[in-house]
Amino acid sequence: MRKRSMRGFTLVELVAVIAILGILLGVAVPWVGTFADSMRLTSQANAYLSALHLTRSEAIKRNSRMTVCKSADGLSCTEGGGWQQGWIVFHDPNHNAAKDDTEVMVHQSPALPASFQLVGNSNVATYVSFDATGGTRLVSGAFQAGTLTLCRQSALNGEARQIVINSAGRPRVQKVVVATCV
Length: 182
Prior knowledge:
182 residues, alpha+beta, four-stranded antiparallel β-sheet, 8 strands
C-alpha cells in the first residue's frame, strides 16, 4: 500500500504564525498611528504655507500690498483666537492689514480640524503682509518676521511644525518638538 502525503498546516505551525503576526502587528500599529499624525501635521502646515506663497506671489504680481489674516467668518480679519479658525488672503492697498469692503479677497481657507492649534508669535499673531517686492511688512512699515507653531492639542510634549517667515518674506516649515500644545 502506498501512503499518501498529507498537505496542510499542523496546529502548532498555525499557532506559531498567529503569534508572530500578533507581535508584528503590536509593533507596527503604534508606528502607523504616529506616522499618520505626522502626515496630518505636515498637510496642515503645507496648507498655511501655500497661503503664504500665494499672498507673496500676488503681491509681486499686482505690484501692491497683499495680506493674509486670521478669520473666523471667512469674510473679515479677527484679532482674537489662533490661526486654526481659518484665514483669508486679500489685496490691501491701504496698508492697514484689515479687510475693507472694497478690497478684493483672493483666497479663503476654512478652520483647521478641532484638534489642531496654529499660533504665531507677536509679529505674526494676527496677520502677515507682503509688499510689492515680496518682503513682509508690518502696518508701521517695519519688516515683519516671525514664527507660527502648528501642533495637536495636548498637555504632553509632541511633534509640531513651525512656519518660519524670515525678514526677506520667505516662509519655510521645520519639524520641532513642543513641551505642550494647549
